[in-house]
């Protein structure tokens, strides 16, 4: 498999979860892990990752937080399987809540500034319901201190569009004990592309 890991907001290609997946695959499989830097506008992210999906064979996605939001949109367009880790549901609203109207544009890093037009991009690219729901595994922890896990539970369990979901008590937004979930996540993805 070619595993594309989509990191969350204020992270990058050296994110801890991405590194953990890569280290696991180097020890236990021949799977290739790709860790793109997603610090760019939402439209650029979907275009960049879309090009990767079209160029590679047997592509699967693992997305965390904002990366989980992007993965949901990419599954809808390219019909690839994905594992989502505490996915962001309405990131445009989350950013308005976190930074307030007056603090946007918000400088994320030297390469990327989050602007109002990009929040509109996020809102308009969001699919209204899960597509290819059977190809998505959602991992949630109720102790997520940034996102309300119940939003993801509602969205990914919508009638006729239900994804497989595992919700754990406690935990955190970073997904406590993620390393223990890697074998299960990779098995799910492998089963989806067979």
Automatic annotation (TrEMBL):
Taxonomically, the superkingdom here is: Bacteria
The alphabetical list of record keywords is:
Hydrolase
The molecular function terms in GO held by this entry are:
hydrolase activity
PANTHER family named in the record = ESTERASE YQIA, ESTERASE YQIA-RELATED
Q: This protein is called what?
A: YqiA/YcfP family alpha/beta fold hydrolase
Species in which this protein is naturally found: Acinetobacter albensis
